[in-house]
Amino acid sequence: MAKITFRDPITKSLIMEHEIQKWHFSQETEFQQVDVFESVEFGMTLALGGVVNVTERDEVGYHEMLAHVPLLSHPDPKRVLIIGGGDGGTLREVVKHSCVEEAVMVEIDEVVVNVCKEYLPECASAFDHEKANLIIGDGLKYVEEAESESFDIILVDSTDPVDAAVELFTESFYKECHRVLKPGGVLVPQSDAVFHYGKRVHDIVKKLRNIYDSVDCYLSFVTGYPSGVWTFSYASKGGHPTEQIDEARFKEIEPTLKYYSTDLHRAAFVLPKSYQRCIEEGVEVGKG
Ligand code: SAM
After folding, report:
1. CATH fold label, 5-55
2. Quick one: pLDDT band at residue 90, thresholds 50, 70, 90?
């Protein structure tokens, strides 16, 4: 019998093909194609728009690093805004911090939230948490209408810049986030893979540097994503991400963690020379 597979386009000329144990869900929503299947290699997997977004096996490398690097660099984050993040993994990490009073998550596609509750319950475990406030709507609109200086941290856990997420990668969106952040606030958008999408990472950092006092990229291993090495861009209104890491707060959450450590936090900002050059100058890795 022919094997069922899912072909994940890494780029237009490269594919990662998953052998599938079981196909669970497929629906074309108002916003995107949503698929859930069990990959032999990665376990339960969510694909959006035909692209792998979350896998059971490697999701912690993405969610723990997106959340804890800014949350432990900020001295006292009370209000956190998550844009996108429909699987719930980032929310699960944010609400672990005792100082966080409210985590607002704005996800455009309710179907993603519902399928993740059913098929990725480890990720979707915090939607009913007392600090969690889930809003189904467009993250761009939410930020445009939000009060100035009303959040300590904004995490952009969006799909790549296609469809509804395109506007979340613009300079005007980053400017709106700057307005909404309190003094000392931090914005961290997921910012793609340097190896395959160097130009995209370079552009994101360039736009952020036009607005924020300090902008640095950091890396995380997310094996199922293009190249397996993902970037996040740390943009702050003051304060460097490795200057003051809250070790006491880290100790509180450490028993729950599978990936993040404060040593890794520091190391994540040390980039290979060719990656740094790509981010700074736009020269693609291995091509200049
Ligand atoms: N870790 C993932 C990745 O980079 O592949 C991101 C996962 S998370 C499921 C991405 C979410 O962003 C999706 O559920 C999608 O519906 C949501 N999204 C895209 N555009 C959005 C927008 N304008 N406002 C709010 N959510 C948005």
Report:
1. Spermidine Synthase; Chain: A, domain 2 (2.30.140)
2. very high
